[in-house]
Structure formats: structure tokens, C-alpha cells
Amino acid sequence: MAEVAAQLRENIQRAVKVRNDVVRDVLVALFAEGHVLIEDYPGVGKTALARALARSLDADYARVQCTADLLPADIIGTNVFNQREARFEFHPGPVFANVVLVDEINRTSPKTQSGLLECMQERHVTVDAHQHELARPFVVIATQNPAEYEGTYPLPEAQLDRFMVRVSLGYPNAAEEAEMLDQHARHDRVLDLEPVTEVGIVRAAQAAVAAVHGSDAVRRYTVALGEETRNDPRVELGASPRAVLMLFRAGKALAALEARDHVLPDDVQALARSVLSHRLLLVPDAGPGDAEAVIGEALDRVPAL
């Protein structure tokens, strides 16, 4: 598992200049069967990161470019009448790929956003009362711009809660940006990537993550962190039970990435901000600080058992 993760990390960073912790969080979500929200300014590599992950896997890849007129059927698929056979046939949408890039997710309508809820949580879609199972592994990588709000539809809390981690790439330093100009000015290096692993290996890695041991003490510690966010007077909506579950699963994935068969409180602490910050809703007059500051203070207050 750790070897596969190292190969993926090296392959992705060969084409995209991103921090190690960002790649770590993306791989944690992949192996813990979660989804990723990449939120950052235009031009910092959000789409390139998703494409690099998809090309590193020998798996089906699909991209959805979100617009205001996009319909749920454009994502999940629809039944089409076959005149020759006089019956309806289901034509699957892009969510039936293994890796689905949903670009600029907040530019599509709430109705279309809601079309992703069932498939992200339950790994199937329902069309005309018939369930259709999705491919495994299945990961949604969505991107959005946090600065430009004209013509956008902010993601509701129920949608945000479906994403295991939210990551932000940030701007590169001067040396990294100069290197990028040298390496990427004439050619898209993502196109040069070859797969370094396949679907069967990822499925086996996901099974290995599920088998990682989490002690009662670590479970109590994870629950206590979630409760601490709910009891903070600055927080209107704290971490949900789903958020606590995802934090625990993410901790198990991080333990497996580091070649351990058990979770440590350090794993939970390392991922708490990425997993919980986008799920917190602060009260309007919360004062200075943001959701990450609330989580940081919760980590300071709750003792590691």
C-alpha cells in the first residue's frame, strides 16, 4: 500500500507542482473511498491535479464541465427509447467512470448539484425507479473558485458533507514557478504520464484500509473532536456524524499510507483540518478566525487519549 502510494505521489508530482500534504490528502480520499473538493483561485493547477491522478491510474476517466444549463441527466445518464426494439435503454452518464472530474461545480444549478448526492454517498444512481451500480473504485474530484461568485450557486452543506477532504493548492514560490515556466511552457506534462497502478490494486488497497485497526481510544478521541466543534459558541453547524466517520476512515487510510496497521491520534490530527473545515458553518458574528482556526483550537483542547 505504501509503495503504491509512493508511486502515485511521484507520478503526480512529475507533472504538477503541488505540496506533499495536498497529494497526501488526495490519496487518502482515494484509498478511503472518499471524494475531493479542490478549492482555489484560477490557474493554480486544480484541473491539472485531477487529470494527473486520473492518468496515473489505469482506470476510466470522465470530465464534467459545469455550466448553468447543465442537467442532472447530463451527469448520471438517462433512458433513451430504442425504436427498433420498442423499449427504453439506459445510457450511462460520466459518473460511471472511476475518476470523475466535476470542474467548477458551483457554476451549475442546485438541481444538478443534487444529482451527485446519491452517487457520491451510495455508489449508485436511480433512474426511473431502477438502480444502476457505479464502477469501483469511484472518486469524484470537484473544483471551484472561492473568489468569483457572479453566476455561481454555493454548495449547500449537504453537498459539502459528501466530500471527504477539501484541499487548497496555493501559489508556488518563485523558484517553483520559474521551473514551471521551463518545463510546461511548450508542452502539457500531464499528457506524458503513464499509469503506475490499476483498478484491481486500488480496490485491494481500499480493502486494506478497511482492515486497519482503530482502537477504542482513537475512536473516542475522534468523536470528542467532533463534539468539540459542535459545542463551540462560534459554530452554528458543527461536524456531523458522517464527518466524524470520514475523519476516522481518513485516519485509517493515512496509517496504511505510512505502512502501519493501526491508527494513531497523530493521523486524526494531521487530517482534521482537511476533513472538517469545509463542514463547519460559523455564526455571522463569530469574530476573528475561520473554521480552520476553530478546528486548531479544538485540537489543542481535546486531549489525545
Describe it for me?
By secondary structure, the chain is an alpha/beta fold. It folds into 2 domains: 2-184, Rossmann fold (3-Layer(aba) Sandwich), CATH 3.40.50.300; 212-301, Magnesium chelatase subunit I, C-Terminal domain (Helicase, Ruva Protein, domain 3, Orthogonal Bundle). Helix content is 45%, strand content 17%. The chain contains 12 helices and 13 strands. It has helices spanning 2-15, 20-31, 46-56, 72-76, 110-122, 157-160, 174-184, 199-210, 216-231, 241-257, 265-276, 291-301; strands at 36-39, 57-58, 61-65, 77-82, 87-92, 99-103, 124-127, 130-133, 139-144, 165-167, 197-198, 235-237, 281-282. The strands form 5 sheets. Strands 3-6-9-1-10 form a 5-stranded parallel sheet. Strand 7 (124-127) and strand 8 (130-133) form a beta hairpin. Helix 2 crosses helix 10. The protein is globular, with a radius of gyration of 20 Å. The mean pLDDT is 89.
Describe the secondary-structure layout:
Elements: H1 2-15, H2 20-31, E1 36-39, H3 46-56, E2 57-58, E3 61-65, H4 72-76, E4 77-82, E5 87-92, E6 99-103, H5 110-122, E7 124-127, E8 130-133, E9 139-144, H6 157-160, E10 165-167, H7 174-184, E11 197-198, H8 199-210, H9 216-231, E12 235-237, H10 241-257, H11 265-276, E13 281-282, H12 291-301
Parallel strand pairs: 1-9, 1-10, 2-11, 3-6, 6-9
Antiparallel strand pairs: 4-5, 7-8, 12-13
Helix pairs in contact: 1-2, 1-3, 2-10, 8-10, 9-10, 10-11, 11-12
